[in-house]
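User: ok so my PI wants both of these folded by tonight, can you help

Assistant: No problem, let's get them done. Here's the first:
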Amino acid sequence: MKSKLFYIAIVLIAILLLVFSLSSMESSEAIMAEVESQKTAISFGKPVQIRALHVTDGQKVKTGQVLLEVSRPDLILDRERLENDRQRELASRKKQVSEHKSKLTLLDIDVNGKIKRLQSQIAQLQAEIRADKNTYSSLLALAGADSSQLPVNEERNIRLASLENDIQSLEKYRTSERRRLNVILEENLSTIDLELNIIEREMATLKLEEASLKQVAPFDGTVSNVNSQLLELVPPYQTILSLFEERPSTIKAHLNLESGYGVEVGQRVNVESAARTYTVEGEIVEIGSRIISYREPGSPLSTPPLYGRELFVKLPPDNTFLYGEQVYVFIIEK
């Protein structure tokens, strides 16, 4: 009987050792992290004046709730400057088009006038040639000669051909000059349109900056440290107020280089409290792209630093973790 009890005791001890070994293995494979509060400090890169403060210290706010409104005198000046630049470029564009039409009109007037003068000279030469033919025909008829043998005035024919060539040259000049003027107009309009495009982009950026003058809560939280008053002129980058997240939504862990975990964004993890029986399932939403040094939460400063990548885990919105609570992150195998 004693021998049987002895063997049973040995088996129980072996089971306990196995459980302890598995537990130790799980703890050693876990990533330790600390639940940190998310804080947003509201400030501006340019001097602003407080137009309205809609919250006070310690006030609870919801996502999208308006926190404060400010004004920026420089934005008004920038808007006026950009609008003036835009109107100037539009006026310049209109002027370029108008001047182009005027140049085409003057070109047509000049060429058409020269062509008409040449056509008048051609008509006169043709009339003279016909008159000469009629005169010679009458003389030959009186003399009883053959009227088919009329003399040819080569000088007039050469002059007539020259005038017709001049008209063709003027038409070619008109075509080439119109093409040249069109190219100049296109180049000028292209430069103006480029300037207008730059102005439009600057105005779009300005609208985004104007929209940021009304700040809303990015998450549910608590207002802390309202450092400014109504109508106060606040210098650049000075914190006006801070907002703390009401409930943890993301935790930051560190993935040791020697751990060998093959993790990726979207992978599921178990987040377990180190001090109480509480576990939730989270999701890896971001993995750091560089190696940094870090220390495990709670380790003394004299501990040599570890090296790895940052790992950001999204928690379910109804989690009950507390800020500062230490947790273990267990990677769930695919």
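One down. Here's the second:
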Amino acid sequence: MSVQVELVTKLYGKQKALDEVSFIVNPGEIVGLLGPNGAGKSTLMKIITGFLHPEEGKVLINGLIVGFNDPEIKQRIGYLPENNPLYTDLYVAEYLEYVAGIYHLKNIGTRVSEMIGLTGLETEKHKKISALSKGYRQRVGIAQALIHDPSVLILDEPTSGLDPSQRVEIRQLIKNVSRNKTVMLSTHILQEAEAICDRIMIINQGKIVASDTPGNIKSLSINKLQNILVEFSEPVDKVKLLEIQYITDIQQLSGTTFLISGGETDLRPVLFRFAVDNHLTLLTLNKQESSLENVFLQMTR
């Protein structure tokens, strides 16, 4: 089931939280939404799920317009909000039974048992939600988002506040449940988006500034600079290095080690020739691969 966002604009007073945002999430795709605080991620997710309405534009879930076909659409969407609002005085199984009742599901007991098994809550199902760790509360939140078997799953910061081991577990859980669903998630953890997403969208100041696979996103660069880490056997004058053609910037990390930037011409042969001409031995000569973090910083600067 596809998610189609068409020219969505959202205002808070005079501030544009979203500015004519358009994209499509294809059936079966896992799309990660990245952006700094205040970029519009949560606002966009609330509009997709029908909890907020845009000033302009529209959202379609498999051709149905959100806001006009809400009862039918809510049956097709599972939503985990950023703050994961749970009824903490209820027991885990009791809470999931309550959510299943809201969706008028048949065989509620069977479906709750399935969700408890799928999300790894077997040992916690007889506990009150208030007694659960943050990681298990996130599992309960994902279970309630999945209990009516939606085709579209929207997860807002699903691993926020978790420790590294909990993040790995929730990440694997999302992978497992996404096999037959369209998934859109927001995150501040770039490695997480790279690990589980088919496509990454970067949003900044209410606009989508990049949208592609993690590999292609990493290859993007606004200034097209390459970085070379080079270490010589003896100290080298930085001014002398700056005289080399194609080098545009140098960070001296020590007397013998430099991070050298340049354009698209490969600097490694140039630096090798420099070392030979100056009777130096090269101890290190590595091209630094572009990272998702570097591209993210460039796109949201």
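The CA atoms of residues 28 and 297 lie 29 Å apart. The chain has two domains: 3-213, 226-299. Good luck tonight!
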